[in-house]
Records
---
Amino acid sequence: MMLVFALFFLLPLLFVTIVSAWDYNEYEMIPAFSLRGYSDTFEGCIADLPNLCTILKTYLKTLKLCLLTWVLTLLIGFTVAYFLAFHVRSKTWQIVLTLLCTIPFWTSNVIRMIAWIPLLGRNGLVNRGLEGAGLIHQPLEWLLFSEFSVVLALVHLFTFFMVVPIFNSMIRIDRRLIEAAYDAGATGWQTLVNIIIPLAKPGIVIGSIFVITIVMGDFVTIGVMGGQQIASAGKIIEARLNALQFPAAAANAVILLGITILIISALTRVVDIRKEL
Amino acid sequence: MGEKRPRSFYLLAAFFTAYVLFLYGPMFAIYILSFQGPDGGLTFPMNGVSLVWFGKVFSGSGIVDIGAAFKRSLQLGLVVMVCTVVLSVSAGMAFRRSFRGATFLFYVAIASLIMPSIITSLGIALEFRLLDDFIIKSGVGDWTTAMGLFTSGLGAHLTWTLPFGLLIMFAIFNRFDNRLEEAARDLGATPWQTFRHVVLPIILPSVVGIGLFGFTLSWDELARSSQTIGSVNTLPLDLQGLTTTVTKPDIYALGTLTSAVSFLVIFLALVVILVLQARQRRHGSDAGKGMV
């Protein structure tokens, strides 16, 4: 196990860091120290001030998509987990309903993405329906291949990562605490805010880490659902790779890694992951 | 049980139903559309019902060589499954006692799980590229590349499936009754016998679950494969490539087929798990039944 991780995870990360500081030309990398990977990435950033340069805009856009997805998955995931944990009473039903949510997770992401095309496309069901109802007269163009569809697909794909950890924290909450709150005269809302949310916090944090890291590095969903038109941090790396500019790609990877680690360490301040397993 | 359900129950139940519809709705749309008639397009309405597009996929006309990608994905998935099960179970057993580097290994596994896939993918690609350069320079004649389905591709998939396997093993052993093993040891069982006849039968349903995760995660894995697979493509990679070029329902047919494989595997695994659990209940305990 250690060997596999060493060979295919730690060593590769090391190489990414090293290569990010190598020089390169049009078709190969040159093992000599250079910060060209980084300087190319931020090309024109200082000259363009006070306007934001492409790279910063891209990262901001990635963060924006990430934030939107995070808020939506958190709201939906929390509600679904709450329902499963507190309102479904028999164990069998809990298992059946959880499985129902899990099965899509075991099927292909790409297929779940292209599944939106017949619904959102120019002649898709949504546009047809709205036209039929007389609400719009032209097909809505922003439904597919837009930021809207990207966020929609991301929420669709990754809410599961929120549901499981939150559900896991919730079923460990002692029911007597809730009864005590009820007996002490707390309203349902007060119970939720003062008891359930603080006790479900570890699950919320773990779920958030999953969703944020996945969305930050994502290039497939953003590529497919954005019609290959929307740039993101992951897409930059992919584009650099396709151009065989490995050091530049590695430099971007290091930057992305840094941002991700910052976010995670901020989140782990709140909760100790190891204790929760 | 008899108490009346509060109104919030019905609100939340409605929300949950909406979520499930949101999860499954689009998928069913493409499953239905893949049976589109020969003149049909990419969206509703259906122009007749036919199997034309499935035929197109199998005959390989119009699309890249899907059959080969299908087989490659299947082989890789099976190898990943076996590796995941063996490595996760042994690592899970090891983690029950503390050993040197246990915490480190744990954090590495978690890091591997949440690392953005593109970075892992890029790293492995670089690693193999440098290895190739090194071998070529050291004078091996017609060396092409060490990168391939069962070297870099397998490694990339394992960085994704192993953490899941490990977490499942943790969950199992948190609930495992150590006294069972002690009893076996006291009765004179060797460590291997204890594992084979006591531990394994108890954890077997979950081990099947790990296999299920291993296969399905590998079968659908895309981001980590993208840079590491070498010159050939797996099925998800081909599918992704097709999304930008194909304008006919054959892509839906392909999607339906891929999902069918996923569902078949899930179904088989669940059946096996249920059968094993039923058998455990039947043979579970002979306490209070007197001498056998």
---
Amino acid sequence: MLSVRGLSAGYGGMMAIRSLDLDVKAGEWLALLGPVGAGKSTLLGVLAGLVPARQGEICLDGEDIRFLPPHRRLRLGVALVPEGRRLFSGMTVRENLMAGTHALADPAIRRRNLDRVCELFPVLAERTRQIAGTLSGGEQQMCAIGRALMASPRLLIIDEVTLGLAPLVVKSLFTALVGLHEQGITLLTAEQNVPLALAHADRGCVLSGGAIVMEGPAKVLRDDPDLPRHFVGY
Amino acid sequence: MQLVAQIVLNGVLLGGFYACMALGFSIVWGVMNVVNLAYGSMIMIGAYVTQMAVLQLGLPFAAALPLAALATFTMGYVLQRALLNRLAERSVFMTLIFTFGLNMALINLNLILFSADVRSLPDVFGRASFTIAGLSVPYGRATIFAVAMAMTLGLHALLNWTPLGNAIKATSFDPDAARLSGIDVPHVYALTFAIGGAIAGVTGALVATSYSFSPVAGESYTMKAFVVVVLGGLGSIPGAIIGGMLLGIVENLASLFLDSGYRDAVGFTLLLLVLVLRPRGLMGRRFFAEVKG
């Protein structure tokens, strides 16, 4: 579905991603792992169009999307839930969710997506008129995922879904992600919690120093004695 | 007592006009962090378009007003799309210098096109007035107040009940998150500047009906818009109404006790007081410039 070849990106003189290759297959759940500073957020930002790529190509179903702005990529089905959730904090939950529908032309699909998000996260349905900045951390994460889902994405990219959340909340968020995966949405998640990510994902890849250093089926990676090495010092 | 009531009423009518005028300035500042120093010149362009439409095309005022709004709306969209978007999300000083230069260019354009003559558009509403509770209300002032309030409510409805308003608000909170939500941010910026422009155009049409205007007269409107926005608080429609009314009433009261030459000085004194005592304005959030530098 998504095929990345020779991708480089960075800020100023610093290259955070160096000639990276990555494939995401339709329908799979790929977990992106790696230590802090490995370039995970930069990579996801480049895929969504927020951070410009210096070199390489990003193909979605064979079409190069490297030069498309984020809203055009969203129209093609690529959605990113950014790190730190980035809700429109002074707007209501409903306004935040509806803000996710600007890529859609059909109002009937907007309403259908709103119903689906409310079904997936019933707590949001109870709080549609609440100001998003006053939600709890878990509810904010649900709202951020909901906002991305409002655009009917085929590839949902999530950066650090569990960051700073209580274990119980993490569990319910992963239950929701499993449900989305079963509905056929392709998932690419960056995650600090390696055991949790590999327990749910189909495949994992480890990013370190801006390049992919390991990849394979989640079950194999989980037991690979080399895996911890990439997380200790770099 | 009757006199004070009359003066407060005059201030409220003027304040409604100030509130509407300030909103076009406030929305651009609040959403894009751009202090548009060319705002007054855009008001003047609205006034000139209105005058030409009435005197040369023979249109009624009710048709000239939307024409003025359309002209400044288009101008705003093109300016933002072609030039200002290159500076969007940069330092406030960059855009301040840009709009300063733009203001010079527009003043000189108006001088070339319309000469430096002071103009006015006499007798659009006549000089008649009606009376409420012993207070006299000129039809002209009442019409200006009604149009200004209609614009204010229209902007409120646009921002809160339409997809475009949702996109504008989302962009003002977090441009990157707006991009990720599928919002075409450069287009939203251009539309926001265009809406600010349309409000300037309507303000200009209203100015033409009751005040004299010239290419350099725009600056006092920019200053008044600035005062109202700071008084009421950035990015707040109720704030703009309160700020506008406050300025209108204080200006009118001052002209009762002081020479009318002190009118602007009183407005700025009020501005200084609010900046010292309550820097975020009476209703609004903190200034963008403070946060982003």
